[in-house]
Amino acid sequence: MSKKNFNIIGNPFPRHDAWDKILGETLYAEDFTLSNMLHLKILRSAHPAAKLLSIDTSHAEQLPGVEVVLTAKDVPNNETVTKFGQTHDVGGFAGFSRALADKKIRFIGEAVAIVAAIDVKTATKALKLIKVEYEPLEGVFDPEEALKDDAYKVGEEDTNLICNYKVRKGDIEKGFKQADVIVENTYRVPMVDHAYIEPESGVAWMAEDKVITIRSATQVIEHFRGIAEILGVPHNRVRVIAPMVGGGFGGKEDITVETFLALVVLKTGKPATLTYTREESLIAHSKRHAYVMKYKTGATKDGKLVAMEAELIQDAGGYIYLSPWVLLYSTVKATGPYDITHVKVDTCSVLTNNTFGSANRGFGGPQPCFAYESQLNELAKLLNMTPLDIRKKNFLHSGDALATGRVLEHAVETEATAEKALVALGKPTKSKESHIKIGQGFAASMMSYGRNNFIHDTSRSYVGVELDGTVVVRCGVQDIGCGQCSSLAQIAAEVLGVALSDVSVYYGDSALTPLAGTTTATRQLYMSGNATWKAAKVVRNNLARIAGEQLKTKPTNLVFKGNKITAPDGNSLSLDTVIKSCAGQGIELYAIEQFNAPAKDLINFKTGQGQVFSDFTFGTIAMEVAVDTETGKVDVLKIISCFDVGQCVNPLSVEGQMEGGAIYGLGYGMCEDVILNKGITMTPSLGEYILPSSMDVPKVQTITIESGGGVGPFGAKGIGEPSCVPAAAAFSNAVADAIGQRIFDLPVTPERIVRALHKI
Amino acid sequence: MKQYPIKIIVNGKSREISVTADETLLDTLRSKLDVFEVKNGCEQGDCGACTVLIEGIAVNSCLTLAIQADGKEVTTVKGIGTDENPHPLQESFHKYGASQCGFCTPGMITSAKALLDENPNPSLNEIKNGISGNFCRCTGYTKIFDAIESVTNENQS
Questions:
Q1: In which region does residue A687 sit, left (phi positive, over 0), alpha (psi from -120 to 50) or beta (all else)?
Q2: Is the pTM of this model over 0.90?
């Protein structure tokens, strides 16, 4: 289908769920209530490392209004090992976790006990009546320290090392011998928070037939399995419903409130509700991992990259969660969208007593992007080349292989995105004051969309037509604000020739909607979009067969448009007429289809060789900044974001992702930092954890390239996560251009700028 | 704890309830009056998701005691416009795609309404200042700026 023939796809429609949100009608997790709900509060550890000696809940239990207090001993299966992947048991990738703390405290804010009471005030009062005896332990807070043999051990195992990966291509020593210039630096990036405006929240109740039903703000309704295992009940006795989620960004990918709610419902049979406070969210839920990255890169005098050696150390914090997966993503992407002759990458993930790291938009992509894009600019400076020229000599193109040996068989338009972004950025603005320095910078990036190929990722979707010609999609996606549901509505509307308003989407229910996998990894448009497209095609083919008989033409000649089916001779039938004919003949008016991502073997973890991802999204962000050299304050004057999105399903949503992603990534570069002092969170509020506000940002200019070369429906690529990946590196490069010096740690704060300029 | 009877006019409807002295307006609206369009994002006055108008002035309802609203008009996004009669800001938020996850949207539209009531022709910088108390994590603010700019007097005439 060529672009000009689309009716719905490629048009900037307001999303079908937009009015509800704008009128204040959408009921998010915390907006749903039941009569006589118990209100939960979680007692959290005040120590990042300690032996848990005893817990006395008796006083708390006696407080009037308290229904129950639960600790580890009350949890049927408190210790679980999460295996990742929907259908495939992948060896070596298992995350040990505890529902409630036991034996050893591993990070600050670890959940120790659950209180359920008639209201929040009573539950809060009861928390203070629980007596916990801790023996504080020394802990370890620096991942490099934690790797040493004699380091304090975070868990019960005799090592803090979780896993390590390698990529080997060519001969790194030989590569550096061929190099005329070499740069070598260590980059440090902080832990950062998702800071969705909706905190973690949910309501749970015991429904008919003893099904524990949880309605929560989650990116993964399929946690019903893991929750069931903790409760010791069959999988089909736990149901998770995801309403519209008030932002996810990876922070609602792991279980948050669900287990606590389910345990109370199982114990009491009563409905329960829990919403984290902002402080709780900042202290105790997952973060983007902090990394230490040692990079050494060599180039010949004409700018060809001949060697890149990278060592990445990931601070996983107190529990494993998704760390091995995030690290694998970083490993594959460690050398960026560049063709480099000799490559040696070593990565490892290590436990510390810091807050645990897990998924965060970009999933291991933004960290190495900051490092490799800094290295490229440092080399360009030494070689007296422009940052664009050195990149143009080294960009991967379609048909080239990554250092992992994987050949990029789909569209690779990185170079075009860089060129277009820089044209849009234009000539530098002239500074009117001598202490204000203007700088320009950009960063290019590659980011996968879709999950690992060796986990056999799948999604299912139902498409059906009603007798009046309207359309129903049922698909277990979680809509976290990126337009997941609306995209499916557009796809079904396109295939069946109806208006967007003719489609209803039922979503996010593990019991009633076909399971569609996680809303993570920029995978829903790719996976569930394809599944919905397949299902809609089946229904269309059934309708076309009958319409073709009546219109006396081949089904493939028919056009579905404007709620009509039209033959080449201009004769047409209304869609509902054909639907009624089909119904009368018992022809199926619905289909459930499954889409399978291409399955690949497990990669070789000793060499990194193999295929991990279906495809990547390539793009560039460019910025112009004005730096006050006296105060270090930076004004961001321009942001240009250019990505090859394959095909815009909804340009308004694509722009929204690119604009939001650029600012999400700008925060990482400019101001965001979960500051920990020996494991203790020093930034436990949005007054202390600094997010970009409306005052800090210019309008983002977006440029989309539509190569048609993606593996999603209609040739689309994913844009959710990729859009944020290069922003921090672009900001850092722009500041370096302004002040003539590079800052190697994120965020690039006014304090760091002043210290660099005045050598203090 | 001692209960104090108060009367709040929420979106034009008079509501009589009893509150404690330490009860926030946010808590009263959500827990006692089922006013769920007022969102709880931080309860510390940092995020702006709970913004309402009291007598036309935008406030964080989490930092306002319910007692302070006694006898006053409280307006939420549902009082600003309805399905049948949406406010021009709501039309423009819809048209420009200024709402993504939507969680900040009720507070954002409420702050924008307060801004435009005071200054019908704000510059981009004045718009930025007007909504600086409202965080949005999804949109990067661009489409929110566009939506508000489009309903200034200048752009409507």
A1: alpha
A2: yes
